[in-house]
Amino acid sequence: MKLIYRHTNTIVIMNANTNMKELSVKNFDSISISKFRCYLMKGLYLLTFVTLGYSSWSEILNPNEQWGPYDGITYSFWAAYALLMGLGIRYPLKMLPLLLLQLFYKSIFFFGIYVPLWSSGNLPEAFDGFLKPFAIGIPIDLLVIPWIYVYKTYIKNLFKFY
């Protein structure tokens, strides 16, 4: 029987008959990002925390109209998302999946919903305010996200099972 323990960039493999002096330790390459990239990430976390937090929490605390269940769920989700983005200011790499979520939902909405409706001429008036934040937000997310870190941390070992 093997016991595998992973702590940051080190994996410790222990057999049932192994004493503590005979541990097999495998070190992984340390994955880091530049300070500049880290500050860019923190800036994006802060921007999202402030803007999304202000708009969602102000609507929750002082709603303009009676909400349906989807409105309540949506505003609650965005308020919680904004709070988590606040944690990203302190822990930029640990909260990186939030930036990926932001990129993915914006891209899916923009390319899967907005562009087809716009190109067919069936774009509802309610969608008017979405073009600018999404057209600006997607490239910013693409530039700020440390893609080498994403590859080495999430994609490279996706199908490796210890």
Describe the structure.
This protein is mostly helical. It has 5 helices and 3 strands; from the N terminus they run E-E-E-H-H-H-H-H. The chain has helices spanning 35-61, 69-90, 96-120, 131-144, 147-155, and strands at residues 2-7, 10-15, 24-27. A 3-stranded antiparallel β-sheet has the order 1-2-3, with no helix packed on it. Strand 2 and strand 3 form a beta hairpin. It starts with a strand and ends in a 7-residue tail after the last helix. Mean pLDDT is 84; it is low at 1-12 and 21-28.
In short:
The chain is mainly alpha-helical and 162 residues long. It has helices at 35-61, 69-90, 96-120, 131-144, 147-155; strands at residues 2-7, 10-15, 24-27. A hairpin with a 2-residue loop joins strand 1 (2-7) and strand 2.
Task: Please specify the SSE layout and strand pairing.
Layout (H helix, E strand, L loop, with lengths): L1 E6 L2 E6 L8 E4 L7 H27 L7 H22 L5 H25 L10 H14 L2 H9 L7
Antiparallel strand pairs: 1-2, 2-3
Helix pairs in contact: 1-2, 3-4
Average predicted confidence as pLDDT: 84
Structural class comes to mainly alpha
Count of helical regions: 5
**How are helices and strands ordered from N to C?**
EEEHHHHH
> Percentage of helical residues?
55-70%
* pLDDT < 50 stretches: 1-12, 21-28
How far is the N terminus from the C terminus? 13 Å
- General form: globular
Instruction: State Rg.
Output: 21 Å
Keywords:
single chain, mainly alpha, three-stranded antiparallel beta sheet, 5 helices, disordered N terminus
